[in-house]
Amino acid sequence: MRQSTKTEETTTDEDLEAFVARAFIAAGLPDADAQTVAGLMVEADLRGSDTHGVIRLPLYVRRLRAGGINAKANIRVINESASVALIDGDNAMGHLVMHGAALLAIEKAKATGIGWVGARMSNHAGPAALYVTQPLDHDMIGLYFAVGSNNHLPPWGGSESLLGTNPMAVAVPALEEPPIVLDMAPTVAAYGKVRLKAQRGEAMPVGWMIDREGKPLTDPKRADEGYLLPIGDYKGYGLSLIIALLAGALNRAALGARSSISSKKPARQPIPARRSWRWRSRRSCRPRSSKRPWMVSSATFASRAGCRASSASGFPVSKAMPNVSTAARTEFRCRKRCARVSIAWREILRSLRCAKVSMR
After folding, report:
1. CA–CA distance, 102 with 311 (Å, rounded to integer)
2. Contacts with 325 (C-beta within 8 Å, 6 or more apart), sequence order
3. Which fold would CATH assign to domain 2-66?
4. What is the pTM of this model?
5. Which of 33, 268, 291, 347 is the residue whose CA sits 20 to 30 A from 75?
6. How far apart are CA 73 and CA 78, in angstroms?
7. What's the confidence (pLDDT) of residue 4?
8. What is the pLDDT of residue 351?
9. At what angle do helices 31-46 and 13-26 cross, to 10 degrees?
């Protein structure tokens, strides 16, 4: 229940759901779709995910009216087998795409014992818990991986935000006991929490974000000037990377700089299949600085490896790779390994030239 401070009238979750549905209908969504999305958004709030629920209604409506989301989308299955399917969301509301994907996965699991459904050309869909818990009603385990629609996390040791706060979720039934549900991002805080802090005029705790000089960033209104920090340092980055592979590359979805969207732009077009390129990693930068443990490269060692770096933070600020002196090559013995990867990773991989990256 919610109490109005002006009229002292009680507002129920049904009232809120009806209001949200009317807003979506006014923005162009069909009635049935508006009701589905409204129900999921209110459920998100009731679950405690207020950063991913009704608070995002103005953003969704702006994107619908600007043409950034397709209100009359044709969500369809474009590839399917007994246990696996791929859905093209046609740039629809993410809630509709993921709700349909969860239902399809459940049906396939009933028939074969497992259902794995991927989706591309979708949008923000609220908290992962909304969909990972749907299989619980059928005594099934639910898994969920997603590529964030905006990038706020740089690759470890890089200086560009090329990864999203890619969430993962798992739900496990526990017979008579409440189910076990994990819903998390590989960053210390989800970006929705940053938005909420900005809306409330509150400062962020130290440890959520850093600015481009590596200093703590606590003003949420300056969030665009910095980066979210991964959980467990490089381990959180690695987790985000793997989630991007499972939820993005596996579905031929946009990744890296291609995946970040604005309010007026539609979801990125899928990546054509069979397009790959060759990238050579460089491992000549020293490990993390003792002064800033989240950092991989220092200015001294980055410059000796051929990368210009900020003297203040050690972050590489130029991806140009001039010739490295013979002495430097001899001392650091840069090991070059080749890997064929999807073209979707061009932006991510090129930012790792100054990072200590294992290709094994």
Report:
1. 49
2. none
3. Hypothetical Oxidoreductase Yiak; Chain: A, domain 1 (1.10.1530)
4. 0.70
5. 347
6. 14
7. 47
8. 45
9. 140
